[in-house]
Design goal:
The structure holds two protein chains of two kinds. By secondary structure, chain A is mostly helical. Chain A has nine helices and no strands. In chain A, helix 4 packs antiparallel against helix 5 and helix 7 runs antiparallel to helix 8 (115-161). The radius of gyration of chain A is 28 Å and the shape is elongated. Chain B folds into two domains: 22-202, no CATH class; 208-549, no CATH class. Chain B is built from 23 helices and seven strands. Chain B has helices at 7-13, 41-46, 68-82, 84-92, 104-109, 116-131, 133-141, 143-148, 156-166, 174-178, 185-197, 204-216, 224-242, 264-267, 271-289, 311-328, 340-353, 382-391, 413-419, 423-432, 463-484, 494-507, 516-523; strands at residues 257-260, 293-295, 332-335, 379-381, 407-409, 488-491, 512-515. In chain B, helix 6 (116-131) crosses helix 11. The chains are: A mainly alpha, B mainly alpha. The A-B interface holds A 24-30, 33-34, 37, 39-45, 48, 78-79, 82-84, 88-89, 92, 139, 142-143, 146-147, 150-151, 154, 157, 161, 163 and B 14, 16-18, 20, 23, 26, 29, 31, 33-34, 100-101, 106-112, 115, 220, 222, 226, 267-268, 440, 442-443, 460-461, 463-464, 467-468, 471-472, 475-476, 479, 502, 505-507.
């Protein structure tokens, strides 16, 4: 895997470029801040994205463990799923890696004919995007669930306040078997 | 078929990078999930606010009164003359940007118009145009020149932008901590919202609680009998958990002290457990020291959503506190765990509805401590009161009953920045819990991050906004959760207790939310209590399971 070596060597530069292109999906004033501020508590969005991309790139270079990928991708998608993005905008940053890598390895790929390896690597990026799609939906579903639950609880409370709720008592009444079939009624 | 676009045409339209435009040229895009629903006209009408009507921010037509520009302009002028602070804040900002990246809504949303400087600039641009000499002279030359000095005319788009972004500020004042000029952007939001209310543009999550509070004394519209019913339920729960029957007193004339807390504590989990905490503490003090405190079913709300509407509405809703204290003839008032309630009390109540010269300077009847800081308002915060009890060794505590919890503390914006209450809650927590961990320094105390839902933004329809605003706080909680195993986020604000559970469920699902007095009551040993096998949430206490099982 000659391409992998090439990518591993260029990791810092590639991740940085990937990060910049992901951050450039934000308005320019915001992007400046997200790139500049290094404190993870003052800039949770920028730092979460940076840390996530770095770890994801390591995964792409290795065997792609789905569980690990999910743990690195989730924090990024969780943020972008509630920001002012369409679904495609929220997940677009994954595909930006293709451009970054093509640009970074252009010369070597054509000279050393690494096209097959490049295609293989890009397939891995596609797999990443499918996981991102799942995570995005999970986050959106969670938002809908939170909305529905808050509404449900408030409505219940309103009924309760109005005295319209009669809770099931702790003690259940003793049940007596009643035989209602025809034969039984004949017996009596 | 010829009408179908070609693939390259399709691709050329996909661009995930925003167009590089200046803020004035970026039109407002009112999004679902961010904006709150408009106020119910009945609520607006009930409190006598102008222009009640059915309208929606998602419609093109907001059903504005014909002369809305005139009303806003007149209102702006009046407020510039009335509030020196607003006049100064409009003039002195040098756009240094120190506040820009300090707002939780900006940090979480990435929307530049949520930078405090830019949010204020939405109003300032109109101020420059209409109320400054430079604006008037340069503006008369042409539109391009206006832009150079950052001025613009108020039109419908600008009004909509005001509305959208003024309801994306929780008035938490974190930005003002960093402003070298001390500009309080919360006050700009407060004034902006007042102006919007002049033409009937409030949100329902503020308007209806304010109307309820005006009628019944609390935001939820709970009538006195239902208020008492709820507390009776809590008394039953407490008896089940501790074996001790507590009997709170209501509307008792001649009681020593009146207790006022947000109604959320009585009706919304997990605030209800904090409410049980107060009830147990008061019972303990009554049994041990003859403490005489009463709850009011009329002044049954500590919070004040009038504060998010107008100064006048805030004053009206706040008035019941002193009025009830006077009616009952108490000596002073004790206040529960709430956020903006304390900003109103601490910064406005005394001059707004005081002086409360019929009340005494607050003195703890148990320790004799004089609460000098509460001399003017006659109202003491319950964490100050409890911290004083602990300091004087007046409480019997079994801290091991909180051992299953690893606790961190979220400074509520209004108590931390609005009244400087930083040490007392920590002192109380550290004395009732054995495992306490602070979040990183730039996320607590004066620099605390808002829960993301303050100042009336805790509605359900704006969940995405709440998650955006809640991100910086949740991010710090996640850090202490991963580093120390923190599983409980404590706070002293009813909005926090209502808002943070959803925020935690989305960002850090392993962490739950509690009020400080729930922790106190877990540890508090009531006279004559039985063996406790559960905490106040009726969840089993590890290592203290029922003997029956053995």
């Amino acid at each position: 895997m000659r391409l992998n070596n090439l990518l591993a060597q260029g990791k810092t530069a590639i991740v940085k470029k990937w990060f910049v292109s992901a951050i450039d999906t934000y308005p320019s004033d915001t992007a400046k801040f997200l790139k500049r501020q290094k404190d993870p508590f003052a800039n949770p969005v920028g730092r979460t994205i940076y840390r996530g991309l770095e770890a994801l790139f390591d995964q792409l270079l290795e065997d792609m463990d789905d569980e690990a990928i999910t743990s690195f991708l989730d924090p990024i998608i969780r943020i972008r799923a509630i920001q002012n993005f369409s679904p495609s905008q929220a997940t677009s940053f994954i595909f930006f890696l293709k451009d970054v890598i093509r640009e970074h390895t252009q010369k070597e790929v054509s000279e050393a004919r690494l096209f097959n390896e490049l295609l293989l690597f890009e397939s891995k990026i596609d797999r990443l995007s499918l996981i991102a799609f799942n995570l995005y939906m999970q986050c959106r579903e969670k938002i809908y669930e939170l909305k529905a639950n808050e509404m449900k609880n408030r409505t219940f409370r309103a009924f309760e306040r109005a005295g319209l709720v009669s809770e099931i008592p702790a003690d259940t009444p003793d049940l007596v078997n009643i035989n209602i079939c025809k034969e039984a009624s004949n017996d009596t | 078929m010829s009408e179908l676009p070609k693939p390259d045409e399709l691709f050329s339209k996909i661009d995930h990078r925003p167009a590089p435009k200046g803020w004035m040229d970026t039109p407002v895009d009112i999004r679902r999930g961010i904006a709150c629903y408009a106020s119910n006209p009945k609520s607006v009408e009930y409190v006598g606010l102008p222009y009640p009507r059915q309208w929606s921010c998602f419609d093109e037509d907001w059903q504005l009164p014909e002369n809305w520009k005139e009303i806003i302009s007149k209102g702006f002028r009046e407020r510039l003359d009335r509030f020196r602070s607003i006049k100064v804040f409009m003039d002195i900002c040098v756009r240094c940007g120190a506040c820009a990246d300090k707002c939780h809504f900006f940090i979480g949303s990435g929307d530049p118009k949520n930078m405090p400087v830019l949010r204020a600039e939405l109003l300032r641009s109109v101020y420059r145009n209409d109320f400054t000499t430079a604006g008037k002279i340069i503006g008369s030359i042409g539109k391009t020149f206006k832009k150079i000095i950052g001025a613009r005319e108020l039109d419908l788009q600008v009004l909509k932008e005001w509305w959208y972004y003024l309801f994306q500020c929780s008035e938490c004042r974190r930005c003002s901590v960093f402003c070298p000029y001390g500009i309080d952007t919360a006050e700009i939001t407060i004034m902006g919202r007042e102006l919007l209310n002049l033409i009937g543009l409030n949100i329902d999550w503020i308007a209806t609680p304010a109307a309820n509070c005006y009628r019944t004394g609390n935001h939820l519209g709970i009538q006195p009998h239902a208020y008492k019913d709820m507390m009776d339920f809590f008394a039953d729960d407490i008896e089940e958990i501790t074996g001790v029957k507590v009997e709170p007193s209501f509307n008792k004339k001649g009681a020593d002290i009146l207790f006022i807390t947000p109604s959320g504590d009585v009706f919304a989990d997990p605030g209800t457990f904090t409410c049980m905490g107060y009830m147990m503490l008061f019972h303990y003090l009554k049994e041990k020291y003859g403490f005489d405190i009463t709850w009011s079913t009329y002044a049954s709300e500590g919070g004040n959503f009038g504060f998010f509407t107008s100064h006048e509405m805030m004053k009206r809703l706040n008035a019941k506190m002193y009025a009830e204290a006077k009616r009952l003839g108490v000596k002073w008032i004790l206040g529960g765990e709430c956020g903006h309630m304390w900003r109103v009390i601490h910064q406005y109540m005394d001059t707004m509805n005081g002086p409360a010269d019929f009340l005494e300077d607050p003195v703890s009847p148990i320790t004799g401590t004089k609460f000098e800081n509460a001399k003017s308002t006659k109202m003491v915060h319950i964490t100050e009161f409890t911290a004083d009890l602990i300091k004087h060794d007046k409480l019997d505590l079994d801290t091991s009953r909180n051992d299953h919890l690893k606790v961190t503390y979220h400074d509520s914006c209004n108590t931390a920045r609005g009244m400087g209450l930083l040490e007392e809650p920590r002192y109380v927590i550290k004395n009732v819990c054995n495992n306490f961990y602070e979040m990183p320094a730039n996320t607590i105390r004066e620099q605390t991050f808002c829960c993301g839902s303050g100042s009336g933004l805790n509605a359900g329809e704006n969940m995405e906004l709440r998650m955006q605003g809640g991100l910086p706080r949740a991010n710090a909680v996640k850090y202490v959760h991963e580093k120390h195993g923190v599983n409980m986020l404590s706070c002293i604000c009813a909005i926090d207790r209502a808002a943070l559970p959803a925020s935690m469920e989305y960002w850090v699902p392993e962490v739950d939310v509690t009020g400080v007095h729930e922790l106190v009551a877990n540890a508090l040993i009531l006279p004559g209590e039985g063996k406790r096998t559960t905490d106040l949430r009726s969840e089993p206490l590890p290592g203290m399971e029922d003997d029956d099982a053995e």
